[in-house]
From TrEMBL, chain A:
Record key words, sorted: Cell membrane, Membrane, Transmembrane, Transmembrane helix, Transport
This protein's name: Sorbitol ABC transporter membrane protein/mannitol ABC transporter membrane protein
Origin species: Rubellimicrobium thermophilum DSM 16684
Top-level taxonomy: Bacteria, Pseudomonadati, Pseudomonadota, Alphaproteobacteria, Rhodobacterales
Classification via PANTHER family: INNER MEMBRANE ABC TRANSPORTER PERMEASE PROTEIN YCJP (PTHR32243:SF18), MALTOSE TRANSPORT SYSTEM PERMEASE-RELATED (PTHR32243)
Membrane association type: Multi-pass membrane protein
Domain ABC transmembrane type-1: residue ranges: 72-273
UniProtKB/TrEMBL annotation, chain B:
Entry protein name: Sorbitol ABC transporter ATP-binding protein/mannitol ABC transporter ATP-binding protein
Claim: Translocase is one of the keywords in the record: no
GO CC aspect terms: ATP-binding cassette (ABC) transporter complex, substrate-binding subunit-containing; maltose transport complex
Tree of life domain: Bacteria
Signal peptide, first to last residue: none
Keywords, in A-Z order: ATP-binding, Nucleotide-binding, Transport
Keyword Nucleotide-binding: yes
Protein family: Belongs to the ABC transporter superfamily.
A GO MF term: ATP hydrolysis activity
Protein source organism: Rubellimicrobium thermophilum DSM 16684
All copies of domain ABC transporter, residue ranges: 4-234
Pfam families from the UniProt entry: ABC_tran (PF00005), TOBE_2 (PF08402)
Amino acid sequence: MARAVPPARKALTTALAWAVGLLLFFPILWTVLTSFKPEPVAVASPPVFLDFDWTLRNYQDVQRQRDYFDYFQNSVILSLGSTILALLIAIPAAWSMAFVPGRRTKDLLMWMLSTKMMPAVGVLVPIYLILKWLDDMITRRTGIDVGLDSHVALLVILTLINLPIVIWMLYTYFREIPGEILEAARMDGATLRDEILWILTPMALPGIASTFLLNVILAWNEAFWTINLTVTDAAPLSKFITGFSSPQGLFYAKLSAASTLAIAPILVLGWFSQRQLVRGLTFGAVK
Amino acid sequence: MGRITLEGVAKRFGEAEVIPPLDLDIPDGSFCVFVGPSGCGKSTLLRLIAGLEDTSAGRILIDGQDATRVPPAKRGLAMVFQSYALYPHMSVRANIAFPLRMAGMAREERDRRVEEAARVLNLTPYLDRRPGQLSGGQRQRVAIGRAIVREPKAFLFDEPLSNLDAALRVGMRIEITELHERLRTTMIYVTHDQVEAMTMADRIVVLNAGKIEQVGSPLELYREPRNRFVAGFIGSPRMNFIEGAEAARHGAHAIGIRPEHVTPHPSSGDWKGVVGVAEHLGSDTFLHVHDTGLAETITVRAEGEIGLNPGDTVYLTPQPDRIHRFAANGDRL
């Protein structure tokens, strides 16, 4: 399989790849570095790269002002919860689109994708009003929190905004599974539930796993809805970060510390699952 | 019990009529082969019986009960697919046990039946392997094992041997025939290979463009094909067809004579021709004779060590009682 590549070209492409990689990584590196700087150094001009008094003070300040773990817990609940909900809806949906496509299946898939092209801010006000109405109608009367700043509302919203991508990904994986195997299961007496539970899901497990991972990451990083619709009760780490930006005073170092704390868990998750992620994302492209 | 009756069963995909309404009765315990060229609708017909496709019209009866709207899982039929369609994430044991598990059978009984099926099919050493670790023939046997454990009313085979190499195919053909001898369960077997049809079937259904051309035992089809299509499809090498004056002499639009019913002779006979190709198989020699003025090529089966070579003149004499006569529309006269 190895092709002869001239050493000069190899060196050049390697250098280029490193350059691009560093370019992409630089903002994250800078954020992490800044989080260890004293506030005045963080805004110093010209910028200081490594030569400063390293400090953990920002982390202490951040934790003193807001409890990181409350937000962390909300991030876990929202990202895992919305992903599991999305999978529960998407697996049967993708099954029907992949194995019993109708005349409009293709249109339906395109339509679902098109919802991702709409600017989210366009529906912020209606959704805000709906949640406010739910607050008035249900939360106030029953005590069950389903409106603004509630887990339920955020779970539903995050599930729905990522659902098109989840269905699309699963659809592509399912299409790789030979229909005859599902027919064999049907001949063997499997009901639709058995077929999805015992045959389709285990066979598509690598695809489902990478869909799961990607969606957890997407939901974890989601900021628009979580920032606008939560205050404290359901606020995840994205909201935690914004809490440290202020119109006056020095806040860059603390903001960076908060950001570092917010992205650290997902960075670790991504690091350990990168093989699964790459495999899932290139599934079907390279067989 | 496994009697399958089709009454006016038809299948349309949109505008295209794949199978025009047809009637067919498959008696309990028979080995029925659907044979025909590719695209003739034989697999579709099998899938209609299985319930994997919905009928556009007509009724399917299994043991006299209307099963037309019964889902495949509830028809009590087992199917072996061309691709084997094994469950790749399960061991051989779990594959064979799957239909029993779906039927809610108790674990001990399940294990006993799986062991028994594995023993019959020589799969015992492979029970804990995955399908991916098996050869084509072994996979085929697992697929058959999965079908037999549940003791179905009938087996449906969809070109089960076409993914195997030639030697294995002959072996599996015999194994399936022996299986039928032992179980005496109805089997419906789809193939495009007329040799498989002739050797395995006790009833052959010849299909062409979704239409049943003829139903009968292998020898009935061989001796008395109802029309030119069946005559040409059954038998190997193919029957010779002669039109024109020679056919008119027999009072027909066309006559047919099988290669094995023509006697070659170096110096005398009815038809004179030149040997084009001589295929020496050892036991037989197939002569492809040209320039007879009757048809482009007349194929003749001669004895194995006949001393005729390409370019030699040869005289051919058909056995008069073996000449098949056909009308202009292809029907037998």
